[in-house]
Amino acid sequence: MPTIFIDNKPFEVKAGKNLLEACLSLGLDLPYFCWHPALGSVGACRQCAISMFKDENDQKGKLTMACMEGVKDGLRISLTDTTSKAFREQVVEWLMTNHPHDCPVCDEGGSCHLQDMTVMTGHDYRRFSYKKRTYKNQYLGPFIHHEMNRCIQCYRCVRFYKDYAGGKDLDVFAAHNHVYFGREKDGVLESPFSGNLAEVCPTGVFTDETLRQHYTRKWDLTMAPSVCTHCSLGCNITAGERYGELRSITNRYNGDVNGYFLCDRGRFGYEFVNSENRIAKPIIRNRVGEAVDEDTLMTHLKTIFKHGNKFIGIGSPRASVESNYALMDLVGKDNYYNGLSEFENLLAKLVAKTLQSGTVRSASLKDVEKADAVLILGEDVWNTAPMLALSVRQAVLKSAAAEALQQTPLPQWHDAAIRELVQEERGYFANITLAGSALDEIANYKLHSSPDDIARLGYAIAHIIDPGSPAVKNASDELLTKAKEIADALLKAKNPVIISGTGCLNEPLIKAAHNIALALNSGERKAEICYVMHESNTMGLALTQAFGLDKAIERTEREEGLSVVILENDLYRSLPGNVVDRFLSRCKNVVVLDQLNNATTVKAHVLIPSATFAEADGTMVNNEGRAQSFFQVFNPASNYVREAWRWLYAIKDLNAAPGNETFPHPDEILSRVEKDYPMFSGISKVSPAHDFRVNGQRIPREPRRYSGRTAIRANISVSEPRPFQDDDSPLSYTMEGYDGIPPSSLIPFFWSPGWNSIQSVNKYQDEVGGALKGGDPGVRLFEVDKSKPKTYFEHIPYPFTAKPDHLLLLPQFHVFGSGELSIYTKAIEDFAPEPYAALSEPDAEKMGLSDGSILNVKIGEKKIAFPVCVHKAISNGIVLLPAGLTETAGAIWGAWINFSANGHS
Amino acid sequence: MERPLTEHIHPNRPALNLKEYEAVGGYAALKKVLKDSSPKQVQQAVQDSNLKGRGGAGFNTGMKWSFVPMDNAPRPKYIIANADEMEPGTFKDRLLLEGSPHQLIEGMIIAGYAIQADISYIFLRFAYKDAAKILRKSIQEAYDAGYLGKNIQGSGYSLEMYLHTGVGRYMCGEETALLNALEGKRATPRAKPPFPQVSGLFGKPTIVNNVETFCCVPHIIAKGAEWFKSISKSEDGGTKLYGVSGKVNKPGLWELPMGVTIRELIEEHAGGMKNGLKFKGALPGGASTDFLTEQHLDVKMDFKSVAAAGSRLGTGTMIVLDDATCPVGFVHNLQHFFAQESCGWCTPCREGLPWVEKVLLSLENGEGKKEDLDILHMHTKFLGPGNTFCALAPGAMEPLESALKYFADDFEKHIRDKKCPYHN
After folding, report:
1. Rounded to an integer, what distance in angstroms lies between the CA atom of residue A529 and that of residue A782?
2. Do A46 and B348 touch (CB under 8 A)?
């Protein structure tokens, strides 16, 4: 490790870093704007100037930009010398010549990097006495608000949006002191990563438009560490509340998972928590005054759970491990069904088992970013797991850079120079999907095919890599040529990642992906695999290998008089309406716990309000197999809104003999989970137990500057109530408590003295851009077992052939529209696609259909008319319908369906 | 006195076409190089001639070429002529472009051969419409005659050449910004290192030289490095195109041995100051060089001597300030240009130059305050080399800093009298 001298004091620093990174990692305060740990250095803002000295006799030094100078053994610099201090102060004064003095009305105020840096440099009085330049703001859509006058031209927005995320509709225009950052004209930002602009922007040019609708200063939010519920990746989020309303979601850094960024579905899809459609009171149907109080509810539940009624339970992939376990505990393991439809369950269990077996390591998002070759087999990750698509993009950029740097060495942080050197070169990335994806533009190899044919290709690739893996019988030359090309490219890699998932509803595909990764693994090559699943806790559900919905239905057909408890699961989304209708009608009692009214809750005999992620503590397991905790952000206005596990244990204890109550502490639930299911081993260590304290103090959910505590409820009662006591976690609902850096899984918000913006995350890392102090949050539940022999799957499908009069029904996912809960955000609902049926050109022609003509598809017993969309990339014999819309709820994906074209039937 | 660069340029006659150029010895140097010399030998010859870059920085051209990777080098390699002549007061390349296009083309091909370039570009200033026309024609002639394209003159060496016309940004004269512009990106400069010789156009090894620099090359090859050094009056080799503008009797442009004095330029070639006016100072090498004053009239116009006097030779085209012109207004005019031409990439230049411009305007309008001078001085200090991303702002500060030094009285008078003393 090189030693550098900062103000004559020696420090050991990491080689290969620049001086800014070195100083920040040492915990020193050196202001900056254009540099970003994920974006690297470009040297534009000149804010991080320091003085550099030739040797210890050099007293004068030379101003140097810390972000553009690598560390070198023996280097001598100063942060405190008058010249560099004056220069840094001057840079802020320059920026302030045009920056408006609108902090009091600016959304960024109080969490503004520019404010922090201004104070840090000491600039105060204004000498510039001329007019400021002004701009016109643009309408950028419902997510991001634009206020160009505040711009300090750090260029981070375009560097993130274009370079990092591949967006095309945000750019920099004009020149000199009138450069403009925006779109070519007003309009909705197209990238599904646009929300990150609000965090990347060091001031209030780009701000969260949804927060603006119910604005609160960051310091006035009650915040808790949470986990995104909108896909299976489990990105870490900070959720903030005020006045009983969830106000904003911001990034919670996790170096292994989402790093510094979130997708827009995750960031903005939170409005369901505040929805008017929330279930606020328990309901017992078919009686006068259906909404009941707790006593009535419990009395009723006590009755129906007592009278020899046999209950089955239906779990949910969007409910926590704790809630699903509580349901198991209530109804008994043998009566628990995990709530996944037959096929999805089969696939989810297969993925879980495959990863659990330890033959191939499952890749985190960070692992994907570090891959030197990526193969996507079937999964449309852009839509099913957007942040994974962002990681793939970084992988192909980084691996191309690594290649170029071998010939022309440059420091890793030198972003602009590396981009210049790399140009349009991309690391190896083969993207094989059903109907193309936005990622195709960065793929060196792209192919659109049917799931079975993609699986065959996958098996063929694996066989070329390792002839010990099963060969594809009757493989065409064409297939073998394609397989050879991909196999050859993968063999050149040292850390290839194979990505697949359950989105294609194809079992052989998942197996083929595993075979490739397994075949690639060798002494010097470490292949990893990444499977995308459907919901935020699908993995947690699948790990128990429980039966799915199909078995529950079979059981009710077999057994009379069963009752059911349905946990946070709208069955009508995964099964045809007539099937669910019959199932529910055969159940004597239907008890439903859920957060929002839906088709299933309408049929509930007893409906119990359950808490969303924002009102609950719990644990979820992401697609990687990483168990992560989320913490309650606030107490909902309705006292009836509680974690499902809390209700379920309360129900369980209703008929327990006194002294035999089992109601556990949440910590206890996880210990029981671990005991009952060894595959969850480690889950109780995800975050510290509820009685964890630092110096006897809790971790406060509210910043020290939280205001209005005594007045916030004054309209209800002038006496301030005692703060709500959290017995479930080490967090408190106050601003008092430990103000240092808590364990990484317990960080309610990032803040450090002088660092009020999200950039304060620097202070929570050992090394800027690296892991959080003490390690990134989450516990991986499975790791590679090197003793495992190479066991290949042998389930090779026949070549896909279209069937006459039938179409294979497959889902087309959409970032905006396919999520069950995110759709409650108005803007996301607006971006959801209109229903359509996508067909291949030849199929459409054969049926006499063209764009806009009608294809009638039977979903359950309902015949639904879908406007046709003729698609060039789809294989013949397949129809794609948008997943997650009301119109496609209950569709049996992966099934061959009857259809009728317009006019014919 | 030899005038190799302009010998065949006549104000009243169109530029030589290929045939005419060949008739006066054109392309002989190229043929000689292709037949007799290795690329390294060409580099050495140019290095030996002590040819220094005529764009203003004055770096040894042959040495610059020697930094280009030769063995197992990334391909394609590029050779680029910087013909984006936009330095205020500078019009020397225009003469060469319009007057002797084949001289430039030949120089570029020889340079291309020396670094084994595959593709060449002439990046031409937007406003040089006539030059564009004649260059296009001349490039075609060179292709037709087998001086460009595949297997030039049977040598096995190939070079493509394209003319690229800019859209009129001063910034594009900065070589790395030129490269970005040529790639279709914003004309913002790049950080150095990496230098273009290693990672230039499209990330490949690239040499960017000024038009006049390239024009010297055929003559160095034809007559030798020693000859080139012998025609100079200084240690820098060759002749130089010197220009004088301002209130002199005969503003103009002359090819003279490198190292003539300022006095000789103004008095002999430019015909002295106009009647009734006195020489007050001059920017020796374009708008971004420091003022020199009467005490410097005997300074030799070569890179080292001008630098020793506290300024830069720059482009060698001088702007003269007379005693009836307000130096504050003069500098304000320059700062208006520089502020407008800032690319907007780095903070000090983007925000500092407009501030300087506004301060100078208020001084000129009689609205200046004493503290304004502090602000100007602060900028001359903080917009120095290394503090900004490229040389534009430091260049802009050179006339300002020297004006504050030599014409301090004028600045103070503006503040004291609350008006410009040069205007009634």
Report:
1. 13
2. yes
Please provide residue A880's backbone torsions phi and psi, each rounded to the nearest 5 degrees: -105, 130
Task: Inspect the interface and report whether the beta carbons of A423 and B202 lie closer than 8 Å.
Answer: yes
Q: Which domain holds residue A17?
A: 3-96
Residue A870 lies in a domain: yes
Best probe of the A interface among B201, B337, B382, by most A CBs < 10 A, is B382
Q: Which residue, B316, B175, B298, is CA-closest to B236?
A: B316
Amino acid at A557: E
Domains of chain B, start order: 18-230 (3.40.50.11540), 239-322 (3.10.20.600), 327-417 (1.20.1440.230)
Q: What's the token pair of residue A523?
A: 């002494």
| Cα A220 to Cα A617: distance, rounded to the nearest angstrom | 22
Residue A131 belongs to some domain of the structure:
no
Q: Convert the pLDDT of each residue in A630-643 to its tens digit.
A: 999 999 999 999 99
Contacts of A87 in chain B (CB under 8 A): 382, 387
CA distance to partner chain B, nearest, from residue A401 (Å)? 12
| Residue range B224-260, pLDDT digits in tens | 999 999 999 999 999 999 999 999 999 999 999 999 9
CB neighbourhood size of A479 (10 A): 19
ipTM rounded to 2 decimals: 0.96
How far does Cα A358 stand from its chain's mean position? 24
Check: CB of residue B214 under 8 Å from CB of residue B81. Answer: yes
What tens digit of pLDDT does each residue of B157-182 get?
999 999 999 998 999 999 999 999 99
Give the Cα separation of A146 and A141 in Å (integer): 9
Residues of chain A contacting B193 with CB distance shorter than 8 Å: 410, 417
* CA-to-CA dists, residue A485 to A445, A465, A497, A511, angstroms: 9, 11, 16, 20
Chain-chain contact of A94 with B355 (C-beta, under 8 angstroms): yes
Same domain flag for A452 and A421: yes
Q: Count how many domains chain A has.
A: 5
Q: Is B387 in Cβ contact with A49 (below 8 Å)?
A: yes
B56-97 tens-digit pLDDT? 889 999 999 999 999 999 999 999 999 999 999 999 999 999
